[in-house]
Amino acid sequence: MAIRTALTETLGLEYPIVLAPMGSVSGGRLAAAVSNAGGLGLVGGGYGDHAWLRDELSVAKAETARPWGIGLITWATTPETVQLALSYEPHTFMLSFGDPRPYVPAIKEAGCKLVCQVQDLEGARAAKAAGADVIVAQGTEAGGHGATRATLPLVPAVVDAVAPTPVLAAGGIADGRGLAAALMLGAQGVLMGTRFYAATESLGHWRAKEHIVTAKGEETRRTRVFDAVRGHEWPESYTGRALHNRFLERWDGREEALVAELDTEGRAFQEAVSKGDFETAMVWAGEAVDLIAEVANAGELVRSTGREAESNLRHANRFVRSD
C-alpha cells in the first residue's frame, strides 16, 4: 500500500515527504538520496553563495533520477541567484521568509512547481495569491528560522484558509507518526529538516549530528544570537531555533552588545564553526530531536517514515467503535 495525496500526485512522489532546504546542510547528495527514495529532495541554497550552489546543484542534477528542487531564503536572494538555480532545471522551487512575488514569473516560466513556506494565515493567503502550487505551514517547533505559531493549530487553519491548494506540515515532525498526524490535520504531506540533518548524506558536521542524536527537545531555544554574530539582519518576525550552548547562554538577550564586539566575537565564532566547536557554533535543531536516536541513511529514513505512517493510518480505525 502507498500513501496517495495531492502532493504525491502533483509531484510524482512515492511518499509525501519533503526534505527541508537547510542552508549548508541539504546539499546535492542529500537531496538526491531523498528524491531517489521516493520523497522530494530540496537543495538548501541559504543566502545564495553562487559557488556553493553550482557545486551542489550539479550533484543534485547528476545524481537524482526523480524530481528534485531548490530552496532559497526569499529576503536574501536576488534575481541572479534565482536564474542560476533555474539553470540547473529543478522540478520544484521553494521560497521562504519573505514576499515571493518578484520571483514567481521566472519560476513559473521555467516550468517549476512553486512551494512557499509560511508561518501564519496572512502569509498563507498571500502565498496563494502569489501563485504557490504548494504551501508549507511551518510551526515554531521547527529547527532553524521560523516564527511563533505552533504546528498543531496552524496546519489545519492554513489548510482551511488556502483550500484547495495543497499544504505541507512542518515543525516537530521526525517520523511516521508525525506524518500520519499531519495528514489527519488536512495536510497533504510533511517537510522534515532536523531528522535529515542527522542523515549520513547531510553536509552537517559529524559532531553536530551527534549533538542532535543525544539532545532533548527542551534543550532547544529560539534566538537571534547566531544571526547577530554572523552579521545576518533577519526580519524582526523571525528567530532561529538551535541547541542551547555556552555561546547562546552568554549572549542571549544581549545581541546589541554582541554586535558591538563583532570584530573579535565574529572571528572567534567562525573559527569555532571550522573546528566543529559546538559550544560556540550553532546546531540548528527542532524540538523533534527527542525522536532521533541515530544517524541514518536518508533513503532509509524516507522509506521507514513512509512505512510507519502507512501502518498508523491503517490501524487508526481501532479508535472508532461501531456500536
Describe this protein's structure.
- This protein is of the alpha/beta class and 323 residues long.
- It folds into two domains: 6-203 and 294-318, Aldolase class I (TIM Barrel), CATH 3.20.20.70; 206-275, no CATH class.
- The chain contains 15 helices and eleven strands.
- It has helices at 6-11, 28-36, 50-63, 79-86, 104-109, 121-130, 151-162, 176-184, 194-197, 206-214, 225-230, 246-251, 255-260, 262-275, 298-314; strands spanning 17-19, 41-44, 68-73, 92-96, 113-118, 134-138, 144-146, 167-170, 189-192, 220-223, 239-243.
- The strands form two sheets. An eight-stranded parallel sheet has the order 1-9-8-6-5-4-3-2. A three-stranded antiparallel sheet has the order 7-11-10.
- Helix 2 runs parallel beside helix 3 (50-63), helix 2 (28-36) packs parallel to helix 15 (298-314) and helix 8 (176-184) packs across helix 15.
- The longest helix has 17 residues, at 298-314.
- The model has no long low-confidence stretch (mean pLDDT 96).
Topology:
Elements lengths: L5 H6 L5 E3 L8 H9 L4 E4 L5 H14 L4 E6 L5 H8 L5 E5 L7 H6 L3 E6 L2 H10 L3 E5 L5 E3 L4 H12 L4 E4 L5 H9 L4 E4 L1 H4 L8 H9 L5 E4 L1 H6 L8 E5 L2 H6 L3 H6 L1 H14 L22 H17 L9
Parallel strand pairs: 1-9, 2-3, 3-4, 4-5, 5-6, 6-8, 8-9
Antiparallel strand pairs: 7-11, 10-11
Helix pairs in contact: 2-3, 2-15, 6-7, 8-15
Which structural traits does this protein have?
323 residues; alpha/beta; TIM Barrel; 2 domains; eight-stranded parallel beta sheet; three-stranded antiparallel beta sheet; 15 helices; 11 strands; globular
